[in-house]
Specification:
four-stranded antiparallel sheet; alpha+beta; five-stranded antiparallel sheet; Hemopexin
C-alpha cells in the first residue's frame, strides 16, 4: 500500500528529468532535428542516450539548489550549476529509429495516441490555428517542408555553458547526417522582469504538484507542502504507466511506459499591440460606465489575465497590485466558488479559461460547482520560457517593437487530446465556456481572437450588467510539434532499432493488466479464446479483453445509437457509434450481420446540440417522440468533471440529421427513478414492454459505489415523461447471459432478431470485447448467452 510519504518518482532513473522534476534553467535551446539516415541516427542516439538527464539527477540538483538559495538569502548559488539534456521524438522519428510502426494496428481513434501520430499540423484547425496562425506560416512542424523527427532540449544555468553544449550537439548531429531544421533559443528575462512573460505578467505560478514526487502537506494531503492551494495530481496524468485520475485512463503501448507526451509551440507576442488594445477597451468600458473611473490599463489587463503583473490573484486583490508582497506573488490558495458569475475574476480571463479550479458552474445553477479534483484529468505540466528581447519603446537596438519575442511553450501530459487539446479547443477557444451562460463568456482574450466577450459588472442598483467587448489576436502560433519523451530504457532500445514491447497495455485506477486475447474474425465468426481481463478507458470492472497484435485495434464503444430513419431499410440498419469525444456512422446488414463504416470519425462537439460534451455516456430515446413529424427526441447522459448530467436533444430525419438542444443540462437527481445512482452506463428496453398502456420499461445499468448494478424503471408517455422506479438494484450476476462481465458499456439490438419467436437478441459490448445474448418476452424475461466473448476488432466498422 502506498503511503502519503511515498516519493519514489524522485528516485527514477527511467523518467526523463524535465517531465516531473523540471530543468528550471535560465537558458534553454531547442534543436528540431531531421534524420537523413536511420542507421546513423541510431548511432547518434547511442552516444546521446547516456547524456539524457534523469529525474533522480534533476530532482537531486534542484533540491540542493533550493537549499543553497535559502542559505544565501535568496540569491542563486554561483558554485552550483548544471547543463541538462532531454530528448523527445515525433511519430515519424520513432518510425525511423525503430524501422517499425509504433502503432502496428493503428492509433485508437479519439485518443492522445492518435493526436501524437497525426501531429500538430494536421490538427491545427481544430485548435484555432487558422489564418495567420495556420501551419503554412510556421517556422517548424508545418508538415510540408523539413519534417521534424526529434526535439533535443538543452538547458543550462549559464549562457556560456549553454553555447558550449549547443555547439557540441550541433557537431554531433552533423557527424551522423542529422539536419538542424530549426533552432529555438529562450531565456529567462532579466532584472525586474525575471519570472515574467513578455506582456509583463508573472508566469508558471499555477503548476500542479505530482503524486509520488511532491511532498504532501500533513494537514492538507491533497496539496504540496509549503505551497498552499497547489493540488497534487495523480502521476499518471503526466507519466505513462502511473495511476491516473479516475476516468482518465487510456491504453498505451508498452514502449510508452515511464514516458510523457510533449507539446512544443512557438507563440509570438505583439506586446505594444496588446497593451494598446487594452487601453482602447478600457475607454469603451468607461464610456459604458461598466468600470470605476479610477480603473487603469493595469486594472483591466489584470482582469484579462486573472492576476496582476506581480502574480497576485485579482480575486484577493481587486483594487490594486501588491508588488512588494512575496506571498501574494506566488499565491495559489484560492478558487472561484464565491465568484461563480465572474464579477471579480471574469469568466473569460486567461486564468479561468486554462484552469477553472473549484467553482466551475454547470449550466443548471441548482447543480453544485465542480470541485478542483474533478478537473485533475485536464491538467498539464508547463516547462516554457520567453524568447527574444523585452519590449523597450525607447530602444534603438534589440528590444524595438518589431523585434521577434514571445513564449516558447512546452508542456507534458499523458494524453495530448484529453489534456492540451481539450484545454486549447474546448476551454480557451470556446466562447461558450463555461457553458450555458447568456451571453456567452467568450474566448480567452489574452491568446485568442475573441470576437465578443461578456464583461460583467454590477451597477449602482446592484444588478449585473453585461458589456460586450471584442479583442484582436496579438499572440500568433509560429510553430508546433507533438512529440514523445521516452523512458531511458526505450531510448536504449531505439539505439538497437527496436521498441520495448510491441503489445498494448491498458491502465486505469486499480486496474489489472489483462492477458492478450486471441480473438479474430467477424462478429459471426468462430469464437476466440479471450483470456484474463483488463480495464479500458471507461471500465471500472475487471472483465474485458485485449486483442492480440494480429487481430487489429478495436474501437471501444461508449454508446451505440440507432439512426432514427435508417432502421432496416433495404436490409440495412445504420447506427452512430460513440467513443470518447468522437463518433462514426456504421451499418449492419440483416441476416449475415455484415458491418461497414458509412461515415468516418467526427467530433461530438461538431453538433450544436452536443456542445460541451467531452464524452457521451448513454442515450435514451424518448419513447413517444420517435419520428413524429420527422423529428426524434432523446435524453443524452454525459459526464463532466466526474459528475453525470443529462440534456434533451432532437434530431431531424433526412441526410443531415440536424440536431437541436431542446433542454440544457440538468442533474441526474431530476429523475426520481435514478435516486442514488452514481452514473448511468446504459439502458436496455424491456422488449415486450415498450409503450404498453402508455408506459415503457427499461433495465438501467449503472455504476454506483465502484461496481455496476442494474434496476428496473418505467417512463410514461406525455409531456412530463413521468419516471418510476419499478424494482430496486440487483447484481449483474442475476443475468446468466452476463456471467463474467464486470461492466456493460452498451447494447446493440440485432436488427432482424427483435421480437422474433418471442425473443430479442443483442450484442453486448464490454471493453474491447462483445458477446451475443437473447432476452425472452413474458414473465421473468429469461436471458441466455447465444455467443461468447469475441474481440471488437472482428467488426470491420470498429477496427
Amino acid at each position: 500500500m502506498t503511503t502519503a510519504t511515498d516519493l519514489r518518482l524522485r528516485e527514477s532513473d527511467e523518467i526523463q528529468g524535465d517531465i516531473v522534476a523540471g530543468f528550471k534553467k535560465d537558458n534553454v535551446t531547442l534543436l528540431f532535428l531531421k534524420f537523413e539516415d536511420a542507421a546513423r541516427a541510431r548511432d547518434w542516439l547511442r552516444r546521446l542516450a547516456p547524456q539524457i538527464a534523469t529525474t533522480r539527477q534533476v530532482a537531486g540538483f534542484n533540491a540542493a539548489f533550493s537549499e543553497a538559495r535559502k542559505s544565501s538569502g535568496g540569491d542563486d548559488p554561483r558554485t552550483l550549476r548544471a547543463t541538462w539534456l532531454g530528448l523527445s521524438l515525433t511519430y515519424e522519428g520513432m518510425r525511423q529509429l525503430s524501422a517499425t510502426d509504433p502503432f502496428p494496428q493503428g492509433a485508437p481513434p479519439g485518443t492522445g495516441l492518435e493526436a501524437f501520430k497525426e501531429g500538430s499540423a494536421k490538427r491545427a484547425g481544430a485548435l484555432g490555428d487558422t489564418g495567420d496562425n495556420s501551419p503554412e506560416n510556421w517556422l517548424f512542424g508545418n508538415g510540408k517542408s523539413q519534417p521534424v523527427h526529434a526535439v533535443l532540449t538543452i538547458a543550462s544555468d549559464t549562457e556560456e555553458d549553454l553555447r558550449t553544449t549547443v555547439e557540441a550537439q550541433r557537431e554531433a548531429a552533423a557527424t551522423d547526417r542529422i539536419v538542424i531544421v530549426f533552432q529555438q533559443n529562450a531565456q529567462t528575462l532579466k532584472g525586474s522582469r525575471r519570472g515574467k512573460e513578455h506582456f509583463g505578467f508573472k508566469d508558471g505560478i499555477s503548476e500542479p504538484g505530482v503524486r509520488f514526487f511532491d511532498q504532501p502537506d500533513p494537514n492538507r494531503p491533497e496539496e504540496v507542502q509549503g505551497h498552499p492551494g497547489t493540488r497534487i495530481v495523480p502521476a499518471g496524468e503526466f507519466v505513462v504507466g502511473e495511476q491516473p485520475a479516475p476516468g482518465s485512463a487510456t491504453e498505451f503501448p508498452e514502449w510508452a511506459r515511464n514516458g510523457s507526451f510533449q507539446v512544443v509551440r512557438r507563440l509570438s507576442q505583439d506586446v505594444p499591440g496588446w497593451w494598446a488594445q487594452v487601453s482602447v477597451k478600457l475607454k469603451e468600458l468607461k464610456q459604458a460606465k461598466a468600470v470605476p473611473e479610477s480603473a487603469t490599463a493595469e486594472w483591466l489587463a489584470a482582469r484579462l489575465v486573472g492576476r496582476w503583473r506581480s502574480g497576485a490573484p485579482v480575486c484577493k486583490h481587486q483594487d490594486r497590485d501588491v508588488p512588494n508582497d512575496p506571498a501574494a506573488s506566488s499565491d495559489n490558495d484560492f478558487d472561484f466558488r464565491d465568484d461563480l458569475e465572474g464579477l471579480a475574476t471574469p469568466l473569460f480571463s486567461h486564468l479561468r479559461k486554462t484552469s477553472p479550479r473549484a467553482g466551475l458552474q454547470a449550466p443548471d445553477p441548482s447543480v453544485p460547482p465542480l470541485d478542483a479534483r474533478d478537473l485533475d484529468g485536464r491538467r498539464i505540466i508547463r516547462r516554457g520560457a520567453p524568447y527574444g528581447y523585452p519590449f523597450d519603446p525607447a530602444s534603438e537596438g534589440p528590444g524595438g517593437p518589431d523585434d521577434p519575442r514571445g513564449l516558447l511553450f512546452v508542456c507534458y501530459q499523458a494524453d495530448i487530446a484529453r489534456q492540451f487539446e481539450f484545454i486549447q479547443a474546448d476551454w480557451m477557444d470556446q466562447p461558450d465556456f463555461p457553458p450555458g451562460r447568456n451571453p456567452e463568456p467568450g474566448k480567452d482574450p489574452v491568446t485568442q481572437q475573441a470576437d465578443q466577450v461578456d464583461f460583467e459588472s454590477r451597477g449602482s442598483d446592484g444588478a449585473v450588467r453585461h458589456t460586450p467587448l471584442s479583442f484582436q489576436q496579438f499572440v500568433q502560433t509560429q510553430g508546433s510539434v507533438y512529440a514523445f519523451a521516452p523512458s531511458i530504457s526505450t531510448l536504449k532500445a531505439l539505439c538497437d532499432g527496436r521498441l520495448t514491447g510491441q503489445g498494448q497495455q491498458g491502465q486505469n485506477q486499480g486496474s489489472t493488466q489483462g492477458q492478450q486475447g486471441q480473438n479474430q474474425g467477424s462478429p459471426q465468426g468462430q469464437q476466440g479464446q479471450n483470456q484474463g481481463g483488463t480495464q479500458t478507458q471507461y471500465q471500472q470492472g475487471q472483465q474485458g479483453g485485449q486483442t492480440s497484435p494480429q487481430s487489429g485495434r478495436a474501437y471501444p464503444c461508449d454508446e451505440i445509437v440507432a439512426v432514427p430513419d435508417r432502421w432496416r431499410r433495404g436490409g440495412q440498419s445504420e447506427f452512430w457509434v460513440c467513443h470518447g469525444d468522437r463518433y462514426r456512422k456504421i451499418s449492419v446488414s440483416d441476416g449475415t450481420g455484415a458491418d461497414r463504416v458509412v461515415k468516418g470519425d467526427g467530433r461530438l462537439s461538431g453538433h450544436p446540440c452536443l456542445q460541451g460534451i467531452a464524452r457521451l455516456d448513454c442515450v435514451l430515446p424518448m419513447p413517444d417522440l420517435q419520428n413524429p413529424g420527422g423529428k426524434s427526441w432523446y435524453w443524452v447522459f454525459h459526464s463532466s468533471g466526474g459528475r453525470q448530467q443529462y440534456r434533451a436533444v432532437s434530431l431531424t430525419c433526412g441526410s443531415t440529421h440536424a440536431g437541436t438542444l431542446e433542454r440544457p443540462d440538468r442533474d441526474l437527481t431530476s429523475w426520481g427513478s435514478l435516486k442514488g445512482v452514481g452514473q448511468v452506463d446504459c439502458f436496455l428496453p424491456v422488449p415486450d414492454q415498450q409503450r404498453v398502456r402508455g408506459k415503457s420499461w427499461y433495465w438501467v445499468f449503472h455504476t454506483t459505489g465502484g461496481r455496476q448494478q442494474y434496476r428496473l424503471i418505467s417512463v410514461a408517455d406525455g409531456a412530463a415523461h413521468t419516471d418510476v422506479l419499478e424494482r430496486t438494484d440487483r447484481e449483474l450476476s442475476q443475468w446468466g447471459s452476463l456471467n463474467g462481465v464486470g461492466k456493460v458499456d452498451c447494447f446493440l439490438p440485432v436488427p432482424d432478431q427483435q421480437r422474433v419467436g418471442g425473443k430479442s437478441e443483442y450484442w453486448v459490448f464490454h471493453g474491447d470485447t462483445y458477446r451475443r445474448i437473447s432476452v425472452a418476452d413474458g414473465s421473468g424475461h429469461p436471458d441466455r448467452l447465444v455467443g461468447g466473448d469475441r474481440s471488437c476488432s472482428g467488426w470491420n466498422s470498429l477496427s
